[in-house]
Amino acid sequence: MGHGDLMSRAEDVADQFLRTTKHHLPHVARLCLVSTFLEDGVRMWFQWGEQSEYIDSTWGCGRFLANIFVLLNLLGQLGGCVLILSRNFVQYSCFALFTIIALQTVAYSILWDLKFLMRNLALSGGLLLLLAECRGEVRTVFAGVPSLGHQSSPKHLLQLGGRVLLILMFMTLLHFDLSLFSILQNLVGTALIVLVAVGFKTKLAALTLVAWLLCINFTFNAFWTIPSYKPMHDFLKYDFFQTTSVIGGLLLVVALGPGGVSMDEKKEW
Description:
Blueprint: H1 3-21, H2 25-46, H3 48-59, H4 63-85, H5 90-107, H6 114-134, H7 154-166, H8 168-171, H9 180-198, H10 202-220, H11 231-256, H12 263-268
Helix pairs in contact: 2-4, 2-11, 3-4, 4-5, 5-6, 6-7, 6-11, 7-11, 9-10, 10-11
């Protein structure tokens, strides 16, 4: 079987998957995407004292402001997730979650940790795709006549920005050692994220990345195997839900397509 035949077979499998799941995929994608915000909102409730004390001791802002910070995180995340899942005020909810990401980036000094910063930016990419999903297609004045601004419409620019930010998650998964497995993993992973970024064979590449991330997530971030009193439990839990959110973003790429600013779209034109 030649390379072209193998690629065609893989695309046929991807198309069959999309036809089978087209009614359910967007719902699963949204649930995965907001999972890290749901988990963090619940954690704010159960660890209110610890979170408030950390903010107070780190920033010296006083317990009152520290409690306000925790409350904003709790309500902003849980409320935003409920509205997004119920498809009410999705744009405002996304902006609320963007604000939460920005607040946490500063409050927890993530700005100076490149790995966590890139993951937060990847989360923001997922939210951009969610904004793109809730925007209607740009309508032209004359039905059936393509708009000259087709490729630069806000929806397509949001899809481009979301795709590019999502790939930052994979940059944190690259292993810089000389073992054969790591080299192969890095080469394949890099090729896939470039395909998603430029929008070439986008749905197939995104589905492959979803499968890869699922394997990594359930293999290396299995927090349920670690006793809850150990610090590693919370660390792996954080990684697990952040990775799940990026999976949700990739599923949105699959469901929505790459958008107008992509090589796939140019091929169709």
